[in-house]
């Protein structure tokens, strides 16, 4: 594919030839990679956008129209709701409602909100640990709602790291490589590579019980990155640390995630942490995603008075 004059890729010509107006729906797309070229017809002799049309239905002239490729890449949360049971006669409590979010490949998005707002519930729903009551979760355009947790290719790192005390540092990190597509890689090399990345070179033989809190979280992050998950979700990974150490580690975590190039969702209630770590920040209030934007957009242009109040503006 070659760039067109607008700087967006052409999609090529379908095998069945140039579509006519009976085969297509005229529509302007935000991303023209979703479309096939639209030719002039008697009903539309000079379309402004040469990439305006997708196949609609089979017709006598085009019995098998070529489907347009999906431009969805990365994670899409589409109208997700999660509800928990309550005592009899009260009905279920909806803790997440109509959440829409996209996380692009290689992007780090922070979910920021007060305790009980639904941040961690959203992570668990994406991972498949909570049943969704409505909506869809997709990766690269394909729904994963019916996919078992262990087959989604998503990683989840919790607050306490959950390291195995009977394994040394190398054993904890290598555990993340067992029984998956990375099983054939050189485990020792991968462990060494990750320890360099997280700033703990030559720590392979150290007992995790001798590590400081910050070192343990670095090892937990290395273990989460070991199988190269297509999405890594971090649930308040630094909240158990004292403030000084948390501030120092925040910049390191931001660097590590970007160097690894891992698509990430990062839950926190700490405003400074979200601004440092994330490319974009989503504010969750009362189970709804109130606003998503870059840190500058959020703090300079809050969408609602509630968002402004939460951000301390």
Fold and architecture overview:
It is a single chain. The protein has 313 residues and is of the alpha/beta class. The protein folds into 3 domains: 1-69, no CATH class; 75-153 and 230-310, Rossmann fold (3-Layer(aba) Sandwich), CATH 3.40.50; 163-226, no CATH class. 25% of the residues lie in helices and 21% in strands. It has helices spanning 119-127, 169-175, 187-197, 213-225, 243-260, 271-277, 295-300, 305-310; strands at 24-26, 53-55, 75-84, 93-103, 108-112, 134-139, 142-143, 154-157, 231-235, 264-268, 280-285, 288-293. A hairpin with a 2-residue loop joins strand 11 and strand 12. The longest helix is centred in the last third of the chain and has 18 residues, at 243-260. The radius of gyration is 23 Å and the shape is globular. The model is unreliable at 1-59 and 62-70 (pLDDT under 50).
Question: What key phrases describe this protein's structure?
Answer:
313 residues; alpha/beta; Rossmann fold; 3 domains; six-stranded mixed sheet; 8 helices; 21% strand; globular
Mean pLDDT: 79
Strands side by side in the biggest sheet:
8-9-10-5-11-12
Total strands: the figure is 12
**CATH architecture identity of the largest domain:** 3-Layer(aba) Sandwich
Q: Please estimate the helix content.
A: 10-25%
Query: Radius of gyration, Cα only, in angstroms?
Result: 23 Å
* Whole-number total of structural domains: 3
As for the CATH topology of the largest domain, it is Rossmann fold
Q: Tell me the β content.
A: 15-25%
Structural class: alpha/beta
Characterize the main sheet: 6 strands, mixed
């Amino acid at each position: 594919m070659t760039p067109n004059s607008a700087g967006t890729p052409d999609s090529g010509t379908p095998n069945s030839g140039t579509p006519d107006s009976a085969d297509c729906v005229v529509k302007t797309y935000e991303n023209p990679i979703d479309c096939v070229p639209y030719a002039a017809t008697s009903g539309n002799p000079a379309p402004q956008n040469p990439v305006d049309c997708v196949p609609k239905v089979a017709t006598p002239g085009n019995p098998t129209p070529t489907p347009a490729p999906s431009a969805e890449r990365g994670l899409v949360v589409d109208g997700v709701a999660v509800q928990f049971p309550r005592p009899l006669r009260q009905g279920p409590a909806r803790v997440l409602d109509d959440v829409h979010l996209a996380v692009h490949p290689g992007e780090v998005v922070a979910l920021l909100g007060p305790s009980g707002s639904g941040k961690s519930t959203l992570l668990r729903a994406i991972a498949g640990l909570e049943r969704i009551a409505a909506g869809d979760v997709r990766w690269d355009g394909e729904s994963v709602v019916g996919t078992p947790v262990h087959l989604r290719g998503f990683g989840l790192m919790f607050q306490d790291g959950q390291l195995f005390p009977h394994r040394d540092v190398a054993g904890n990190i290598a555990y993340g490589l067992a029984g998956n597509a990375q099983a054939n890689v050189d485990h020792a090399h991968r462990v060494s590579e990750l320890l360099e990345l997280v700033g703990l070179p030559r720590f392979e033989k150290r007992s995790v019980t001798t590590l400081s809190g910050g070192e343990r979280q670095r090892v937990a992050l290395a273990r989460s990155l070991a199988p190269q998950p297509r999405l890594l979700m971090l649930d308040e990974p630094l909240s158990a640390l004292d403030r000084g150490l948390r501030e120092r580690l925040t910049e390191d975590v931001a660097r590590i995630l970007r160097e690894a190039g891992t698509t990430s969702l990062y839950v926190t209630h700490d405003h400074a942490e979200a601004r440092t770590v994330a490319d974009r920040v989503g504010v969750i209030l009362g189970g709804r995603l109130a606003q998503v934007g870059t840190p500058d957009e959020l703090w300079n242009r809050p969408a609602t008075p509630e968002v402004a109040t939460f951000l301390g503006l």
